[in-house]
């Protein structure tokens, strides 16, 4: 079976209830859908060469595993080195992010806090530019990731960190069992709690691309068919090479962005 057909069959299958929280009231169309998103890993490990643009100065709470505030960190607004008109593309719709690193990620990077903040700030540049949505990292957390595969690790993040007052919870992992470039929930209506996704460490540049892809799923976007030639970050063929969406996906983001922020 083709990968696209396989994914579609998972979305459509009423019996595919991965972790018990997709309830049976399908006719209400409110249960979050689940996508088994095997966004492939990139061949290369590529880091950003410049610090990405932070659109607005933000103070983030640093949380321990129990959710208690143990520190605060300020991320100053930075200019966009690639765009001189740095105020024109600043998203006025502010959405909040809790960025969490798992134990393997933390062990690899003593600077994990600024590292994952940079990834989110790179991933949101296109959301600012094309949809006026600005992601703000308001929380930084630790996470003991566990699971046999990426689906279980996504569910583990949801179990540990959903229920906080953030629009998005984004996990960053180096867990050896995480068998994808990224994975996220595809919602068909506003999620009850936070929107959840997890991305593999592939260097900050590639991880930012995966993060933009998974955040897009959180807005209800599906995939473009591979081999279609449609250039969009939601097409596996281009997910690591473009930073924009095709017109249909742009429409979906505009329709659903009311789910998040103020
Ligand atoms: Ca940014
Ligand atoms: Ca931002
Ligand atoms: Ca782990
Ligand atoms: Zn995907």
Automatic annotation (TrEMBL):
Protein name (record): Metallo-peptidase family M12
InterPro entries hit by this protein: MetalloPept_cat_dom_sf
Organism: Priestia endophytica DSM 13796
Keyword rRNA-binding: no
Keywords: Signal
Coiled coil: none
Signal peptide limits: 1-24
Pfam families, per the entry: Reprolysin_5 (PF13688)
């Amino acid at each position: 079976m083709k990968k696209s057909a396989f994914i579609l069959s998972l979305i459509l299958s009423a019996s595919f209830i991965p972790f018990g929280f997709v309830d049976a009231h399908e006719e209400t169309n409110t249960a979050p859908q689940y996508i088994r998103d095997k966004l492939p890993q990139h061949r290369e490990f590529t880091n950003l060469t410049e610090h990405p643009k932070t659109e607005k100065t933000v103070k983030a709470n640093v949380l321990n595993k129990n959710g208690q505030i143990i520190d605060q960190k300020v991320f100053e607004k930075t200019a966009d080195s690639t765009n001189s008109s740095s105020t024109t593309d600043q998203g006025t719709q502010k959405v909040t992010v809790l960025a969490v690193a798992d134990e393997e990620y933390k062990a690899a990077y003593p600077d994990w806090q600024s590292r994952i903040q940079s990834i989110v700030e790179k991933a949101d540049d296109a959301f600012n530019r094309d949809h006026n949505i600005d992601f703000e990292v308001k929380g930084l957390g630790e996470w003991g990731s566990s699971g046999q595969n990426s689906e279980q690790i996504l569910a583990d993040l949801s179990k540990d960190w959903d229920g906080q007052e953030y629009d998005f919870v984004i996990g960053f992992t180096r867990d050896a069992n995480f068998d994808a470039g990224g994975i996220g929930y595809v919602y068909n209506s506003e999620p009850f709690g936070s929107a959840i996704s997890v991305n593999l460490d592939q260097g900050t540049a590639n991880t930012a691309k995966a993060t933009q892809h998974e955040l897009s799923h959180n807005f209800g976007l599906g995939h473009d068919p591979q081999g279609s030639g449609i250039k969009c970050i939601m097409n596996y063929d281009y997910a690591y090479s473009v930073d924009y969406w095709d017109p249909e996906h742009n429409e979906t983001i505009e329709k659903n962005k009311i789910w998040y922020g103020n």
